[in-house]
Amino acid sequence: MKIVKFVFVLLLLSGFCACTDRPSDPKQVAEKPDIYPDYIDVTVPVGIAPLNFNMKGDCERMDVTVKGQKGGEINANGNYADFDTDEWHELLEQNKGQDLTVTVCVKNDGQWTQYQDFNIHVSPYDLDEWGLTYRRIAPGYEVFSHMGIYQRDLSSFDEYEVLDNSRVPGQCLNCHASNRTDPEQFVFHVRGQHGATMIQQHGQREWLQAKNDLLGGSMVYPYWHPSGKYCAFSTNQTRQGFHVVADERIEVFDLSSDVFVYHPDTHEMLTDSLLSTPDWSENSPVFSPDGKTLYYMTCRQQEYPTHFKDEQYNLCKISFDPETGRYGSQVDTIFNAVKMGKSLTWPRPSYDGKYILFTLMDYGYFSVWHKEADQWLLDLNTGEARPIDEINSSDADSYHNWNVNSHWVVFTSRRENGLYTQLFLASVDEQGHFSKPFLLPQRNPKEYYSETLYSFNTPDFTKAKVDFDARSAAREILNDERVQTKVK
After folding, report:
1. Cα dist. 205→201, 227, 293, 467 in Å?
2. What is the pLDDT of residues 268-280, one digit of tens each?
3. Are strands 35-36 and 196-201 parallel, antiparallel or unpaired?
4. How confident is the model over 34-44, as a mean pLDDT?
5. Contacts of 85 by beta carbon, 8 Å cutoff, 6+ apart
6. CB of 252 within 8 A of CB of 238?
7. Fewest Cβ atoms nearer than 10 Å: which of 230, 242, 325, 435?
8. Element (H, E) at 93
9. In 3D, which of 102, 129, 160 has the Cα closest to residue 46?
10. Which residue, 286, 243, 307, 280, is CA-closest to 380?
């Protein structure tokens, strides 16, 4: 019995020692650690989930210490840097507007190696958001495979379903939008046999007839008016084609598309001949922060699919009167991408009225498979535009949105592997300069991103968790009861 007790104590002690294996006389190297994700010199908001990371190479054990410029220190010791969430939040709060110094030691073959320290900058700008909404979609083109609209608490690693198409097999859950990140007004589109446009306002849900024959298309790419009184859509008749060259996979184009504004209270679609021209495709409308301007992109109709590479979009605007629901009498081009031999897509105004963030590429508007797609920033005060070299990469950088205070953006990129779009965040200062973007944190990043075979797209910030009953919504989709819309 005494021998058994002695062995048991030895096992406990050996386990304790293994769990507290700290660096002893580490070898110093004059290089920074090769970590995944690359969080070296990134800028993060107070309240963000811990920036856990792995070593890219071999690692028997890792010891990471993070010290705050204003004080505070935390440590992670294990197979990867897994920080305590509460300690991480406390450290960031204590060092808002200052730097964190990160010391990484790695053990291999019984020897500890200490790398050069690196910094993480804690932004002075608050995030002012609860989390993100986005669509996760599995690879595939011919059928609507597994996908869903999800939401993520940015202060933790918790993800929640808004609606997954496993509840409505064979349906595509399309672009979603809330009003200035407030999910009290929420909209998304369903494509397929049970197609519909869902509008939820203050807990009340309506399913609109997906297509109005007088418009010739569905209600796609929504954007709320800041008053909440209207929602802008386009009517894309979308088709897709497939390339036969190795580096290009899929092309999406529209046989036609127009722009209109929907009035939810009256179920009226407010149309205008300036936004429904026969020889041009109007697309992706968005309102200015004051609600008095409607921005959208437009291109000359081409013969598809033969001349798909001639499809190039400019950015235009037209005035809008929120009191009467009437449009202005003149359309102005505010960014001429065609003159550059390029095409503009996904315009998104900052909520402070300073900028429009957009994607620029060679042709078309479905940018997620265009390696040359880059993010650009248009200054609405000066009219000047520039590529955002601070956040662009050598692969497709696309779908983006602003947070409510216009100091943070979220966007998708294929920079990590060229195959799957992933979510990145970056801060924006008062002069319109962007920080180095950082990959959306995960508990164990290498494991998560290597095993999750889904692309993330159409991300947006949300100031609160979306209150949505997925089970009852699925029943409503399948019963095909729809509200009819009227064209005005």
Report:
1. 6, 19, 28, 11
2. 999 999 999 989 9
3. unpaired
4. 98
5. 49, 50, 155, 156
6. yes
7. 242
8. helix 85-94
9. 129
10. 286
In the DSSP assignment, the letter for residue 70 is T
Q: One-letter amino acid identity for 248?
A: E
Please name the residues in contact with 284: beta carbons below 8 A apart, sequence gap of 6 or more: 221, 234, 296, 297, 345, 346, 347, 365
Quick one: which H or E segment has residue 4? helix 2-19
> Tokens 């041009």 belong to which residue?
280
Cα 110 to the chain's mean position, in Å? Answer: 42
**In a 3-state reduction of DSSP, which class is residue 299?**
strand
**Minimal CA–CA distance to 283: which of 256, 304, 305, 251?**
256
**How far is Cα 479 from Cα 207, in angstroms, rounded to an integer?**
11
Encoded tokens for 321: 């009167």
pTM of the model: 0.92
Nearest to 425 by CA among 125, 139, 158, 150: 125
Give the single-character DSSP code of 430: T
What tokens appear for 427 in the block? 């801060």
pLDDT in tens, 418-469: 889 999 999 999 999 999 999 999 999 999 999 988 999 999 999 999 999 9
Cα atoms in the 13 Å half-sphere on the side-chain side of 89: 8
Please state, in angstroms and rounded to a whole number, the distance separating the CA atoms of residues 29 and 37. Answer: 21
Taking a C-beta distance cutoff of 8 angstroms, is the pair 221, 235 a contact?
no
**Structural contact between residues 372 and 394, judged by C-beta atoms closer than 8 angstroms:** no
With a CB cutoff of 8 Å and minimum separation 6, the contacts of 464 are 130, 182, 183
Size of the chain, expressed as the number of residues it contains: 488
Higher pLDDT, 401 or 9: 401
